[in-house]
Design brief:
This protein has 243 residues and is an alpha+beta fold. The protein has 5 helices and 13 strands. Helix 1 runs antiparallel to helix 4. The two termini are 13 Å apart. 28% of the residues are buried.
Length: 243
């Protein structure tokens, strides 16, 4: 869903950061939805295939399904000086990464799923399976859909650390038979900031899909690189298809 934490430690929060963190905590505690929505950086990504929250009005509308009692309690009971920490260029995190905020006071990642969102996710997955070509309609969970200038790539989690790659030309629909299907793909974490990539091998070809969660302003959200016998034969930046 966002940035996951593995053995990441933060620095004590600066007083100027504590001020806007406290303001955010107070707004959540007082159920001030408009003010909370103002403190979000959009689009706010949710767990696939739940659609991202596109703007302030949509956040207010979907507030209860994201900020349930459990999440609100964790935020409301938090202490800016004790439970929030600065993690270098990555931003400011609550506890072990439940929520991330940038140094301008904008929340850009919420790594929490309410019961309402969990039910919605399962319903959307079932609906999505009915719209896909039968050859790829079985999976545990959808991972991501990428679009380069030439290709549409869909990655699904088949369970047991097994990922599937399916691709079409950019003008084809996912209800059509994929041009290429590769299973037994692997997921790799790149550092501790959430960036990761998938490797898919077929014969002497290696297909790598890189996902940039935390990158520079100029970096693409994703990238598709294909190698043949270890030699790069294609490298295309990709957009992540919004849900």
């Amino acid at each position: 869903m966002g940035i996951t934490i593995q053995n990441m430690s933060g620095q004590d929060l600066k007083p100027e950061y504590q001020k806007f963190v406290k303001n955010f905590i107070d707004n959540v505690k007082n159920d001030n939805r408009e003010a909370v929505a103002e403190a979000i950086k959009y689009p706010l990504r949710r767990d696939n295939p739940i659609p991202s929250v596109k703007n302030k009005a949509e956040l207010v509308k979907r507030y209860a399904e994201i900020f349930d009692a459990k999440l609100k309690a964790e935020i409301s009971k938090s202490d800016p000086a004790k439970n929030w920490s600065e993690v270098g260029w990555r931003g400011i995190m609550l506890n072990q990464g439940t929520l991330w905020m940038d140094t301008d006071g904008k929340v850009f990642s919420i790594n929490y799923q309410s019961e309402v969102e969990s039910v919605l996710k399962n319903r959307l997955i079932a609906s999505e399976k009915n719209k896909l070509h039968p050859s790829i309609a079985k999976f545990k969970a959808p991972e991501i859909i990428l679009e380069t200038s030439k290709f549409r790539v869909r990655i699904d989690d088949l369970g047991n650390d097994n990922y599937r790659y399916a691709s079409w030309s950019i003008n084809q629909l996912m209800s059509e038979k994929p041009d290429l299907i590769i299973t037994n793909g692997k997921w790799f974490q790149d550092g501790t900031g959430g960036n990761h990539h998938y490797d898919f091998k077929k014969g002497n070809y290696l297909y790598q899909c890189y996902i940039s969660v935390l990158g520079t302003k100029d970096s693409a959200p994703a990238n598709l690189t294909i190698y043949q016998n270890g030699k790069e034969i294609l490298n295309q930046d990709a957009q992540i298809v919004p849900r």
